[in-house]
Amino acid sequence: MRIIISIIGLSFLLFSNNAVSASVSLHYQAVSEQLVASAEKSISEENLEKAMLFYKQAMVANPKNINAYLGLGSLHSDKGQYSLGIKYYDIALSIDPIDLLALEGRVLTNLKRRDLASAKQTFQTMQQVCEVIECTQLPSVAQAMEAYQLEEDSN
Question: How many CB atoms lie within 10 A of CB 41?
Answer without folding.
Answer: 13
